[in-house]
Amino acid sequence: MKPINVLSKFDLFDEQWSPRRIAELNGQQVILAKVEGEFIWHDHKDEDELFYVIKGTLKMEFRDRTEVLNVGDLMVVPRGVEHKPVAQEECWVLLFEPMSTKHTGDVEHAKTVNEYKVI
Amino acid sequence: MKPINVLSKFDLFDEQWSPRRIAELNGQQVILAKVEGEFIWHDHKDEDELFYVIKGTLKMEFRDRTEVLNVGDLMVVPRGVEHKPVAQEECWVLLFEPMSTKHTGDVEHAKTVNEYKVI
Prior knowledge:
The structure is a homodimer.
Chain A: E1 4-5, H1 6-10, E2 20-25, E3 28-38, E4 49-55, E5 58-61, E6 66-69, E7 73-77, E8 84-98, E9 117-118
Parallel strand pairs in A: 2-9
Antiparallel strand pairs in A: 2-3, 3-8, 4-7, 4-8, 5-6, 5-8
């Protein structure tokens, strides 16, 4: 039960598309991710997912449109909605989601990380 | 399912100690609060509560110590732990907590707001 500085936590890792868990509460987790390039199309059947951009710009592609999130913007992607995060330059994102959420949904992919590191 | 700019949402209200809900997911809510001065001692029997400082400085008093959160710091206060938020100057805070959470816990107080406005 100590303050956690989000930017300092980002300084602890360089790996992209590899979420780190920084807090846990009410069965939910706060994770940090560095992303660059294109992720894969996926959805989460039972979990809504919140993205909050800390640095850079994140494009969230949906099947019918794209939303752009800049620093200080957040967005909830509801369960069951296919999405693909894309970032032209490295983007730092904080996510809130259930502990059970897998970042590639049901898709098994080279980018899939099954156990998030805790930092 | 649109991006939400957190600072723009803070511009929509001036009232202190009066949380506004900006998003809902997985039975949890994202709320914003402007705080200044001393809140009241309270706890939440069944809910962990996350505080994330967007502007200013928040002191979180516990019965045995005080933690200081600056901009970019977050902290989880676990269920059942008595706490009292204090801010010498106006501080803007983003909170993540279950929909069921009452900001004054079981304490009924002049500051108690039973229904959060959605902005």
